[in-house]
What we know:
The chain is mainly α. It has helices spanning 2-73, 76-79, 159-167, 177-186, 188-191, 212-224; strands at 89-90, 95-96, 109-110, 113-114. The strands form two sheets. Strands 1-2 form a two-stranded antiparallel ribbon. A two-stranded antiparallel sheet has the order 3-4.
Amino acid sequence: MPDKNSSRARKGLIMIRKRTSVLRISVFLLIVLAIWFTLSSALVGRTAKGPDASTSDRRSEGLAAWRQIYSVLTSPRCINCHTATNYPQQGDDRHRHFANAIRGPEGKGAPGLNCVSCHQTENADSTGVPGGHNWHGHNWHLAPLSMRWQDTNDHILSSAAVCRAVTDRTKNNALDGPGLLKHHEEEPLVLWAWNPGRRPDGTARSLPPLTHAEFVAATRRWVDAGMPCPKGR
């Protein structure tokens, strides 16, 4: 009897082991199928979207970055010198420059009263007169009319219009994407916007809505996305 019982026990144990092996194999196969299904679904979804979806996503990211750039370009620290008129502006309310300062033939003021007559190489906080220079030395001046970001009535141009001007190499001093990025990153007259000094009453001038680092990062994303511009006039 013990031998028969032992034999039955061994057979039972073998059956259990076989069932356990089958169960393990079944679980393993289910896991493999689940992984395969997940990967297949992701691949099908990606294929369904196709290259057009990728291009659309890239454009959307670029336009989002441009909106940030536009918010800086049209802030008073920038747009006051990107006028369409024969005079610069000043202040957060963008009023006409005092003393009837005018653009002049090269955007540097009238002969005998050039911009650099008052705007020196540094901010003069004691008088409230801003100052700065660029790679060419002491060279405070208005942006060229090709880079005007407002109309002759001092109304800010649309995001689409400003973007077209900024990306038009016949108007922007032949700057391509990397050139624009370098300009935003290093040009001292651009950097001045984040170090604008004090007003005549001693209070600090306001800054653009982004930090300079955020502005450069947005420009880089926009350039990497192909410099897309919004639709419209």
